[in-house]
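Researcher: I'd like a candidate sequence for this fold, 392 residues long. If you have to choose between options at a position, lean toward the conservative one.
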């Protein structure tokens, strides 16, 4: 008798390794009973859902193959030392925030009050399927763009010493696509590496959410990137254009980044030319428009951004530093009564200490200072961050 065929989209952890992967495949398997759903929340209550655990590790230890673990939004710290899995080429023991040695599905971002995803969608970061050959990869779905500084196809994050993370220190504060820009309904091609070059190009029929009729009512977008690496030099150029569905100006982001290695020191630099910021209502998911609110009565603005940075590696330590500046066009509102000039700078210092290949301790300090006139924006800010981070 034919066995049922199931079309599955899941996030899975490989047993013995903390490596998350998005898998989309047609698989054939017999029907089986669904495993237990387990819940994790820092408060130990899980909104009344049971069984409830306060750490991800205790939920994994209690689980059996096939179980699902729903993790409430929060910051989970603490590490466990476990024997390394068979065949592991590293030390005899590993130190991880979570050690997985069975086949389970772990999904995060749940509200402990409702059990629902906090982002309002099951896979908010990315969910894609594709075909890969020696000629490259073609993928479809929800993608983090090549310019985003994150995701499976990022070609720009290396520009930033802080890898587009660390909150106020992130390059995404002035380079708007590098603020984790994501697009829905996308098709993209990613080339293989050839003579140090790699490129990507893509198109989305609507950047955020389900398409609507007519097609002209959707904010479509073109995304692209190319980078090149030779010896100590690495260069990346990205370009994104989001079409305005109401017939106004399109929003465009050009980003150029580079690094140069001098032994343990890596120098970083970047430039962005960004036009019609705020032209797309609501802004593309994740980056475009950044945190700035366009005041009523003002046109979308153009801006250029600059960044210089450094990374200095000292064994397990890394020292980080950067300076960013946004230089925007000044404009007067339609009534002629106010000026909007969103110029500002950010300087940042940080350090990391590697506990393992994927887990580190970090500390950073960043200061954002207004150089221009801001309306309806609470702006000057300082941020001190200390914590532990695990890279999946």
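Model: Candidate sequence:
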């Amino acid at each position: 008798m034919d066995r049922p065929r199931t079309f599955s989209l899941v996030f899975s952890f490989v047993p013995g390794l903390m490596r998350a992967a998005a898998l989309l495949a047609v698989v054939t398997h017999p029907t089986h009973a669904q495993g237990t759903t387990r819940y994790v929340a820092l408060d130990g209550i899980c909104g009344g859902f049971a069984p409830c655990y306060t750490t991800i590790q205790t939920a994994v230890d209690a689980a059996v193959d096939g179980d699902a673990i729903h993790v409430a939004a929060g910051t989970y710290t603490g590490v466990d030392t476990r024997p390394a899995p068979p065949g592991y080429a590293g030390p005899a023991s590993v130190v991880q925030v979570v050690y997985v040695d069975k086949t389970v599905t772990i999904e995060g971002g749940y509200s402990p009050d409702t059990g629902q995803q906090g982002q309002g969608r099951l896979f908010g970061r990315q969910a894609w399927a594709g075909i890969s050959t020696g000629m490259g990869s073609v993928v479809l779905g929800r993608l983090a763009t090549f310019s985003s500084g994150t995701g499976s196809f990022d070609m720009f994050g290396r520009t930033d010493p802080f890898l587009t993370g660390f909150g106020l220190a992130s390059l995404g504060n002035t380079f708007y696509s590098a603020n984790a820009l994501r697009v829905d309904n996308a098709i993209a091609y990613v080339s293989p590496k050839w003579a140090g070059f790699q490129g990507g190009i893509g198109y989305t029929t609507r950047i955020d959410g389900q398409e609507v009729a007519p097609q002209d009512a959707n904010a479509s977008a073109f995304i692209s990137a190319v980078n090149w690496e030779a010896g100590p030099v690495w260069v990346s150029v990205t370009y994104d254009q989001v079409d305005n569905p109401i017939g106004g100006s399109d929003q465009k982001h050009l980003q150029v980044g580079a690094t140069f290695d001098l032994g343990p020191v890596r120098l970083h630099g970047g430039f962005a030319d960004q036009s019609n910021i705020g032209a797309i209502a609501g802004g593309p998911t994740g980056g475009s428009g950044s945190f700035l609110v366009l005041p009523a009565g003002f046109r979308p603005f153009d801006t250029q951004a600059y960044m210089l940075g450094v990374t200095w590696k000292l064994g397990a330590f890394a020292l980080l530093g950067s300076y960013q500046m946004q230089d925007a066009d000044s404009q007067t509102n339609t009534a002629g009564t106010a000026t909007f000039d969103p110029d500002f700078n950010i300087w940042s210092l940080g350090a990391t200490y590697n506990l393992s290949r994927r887990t580190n301790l970090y500390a950073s300090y960043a200061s954002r200072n207004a150089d221009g006139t801001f309306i309806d924006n609470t702006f000057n800010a300082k941020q001190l961050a200390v914590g532990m981070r695990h890279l999946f």
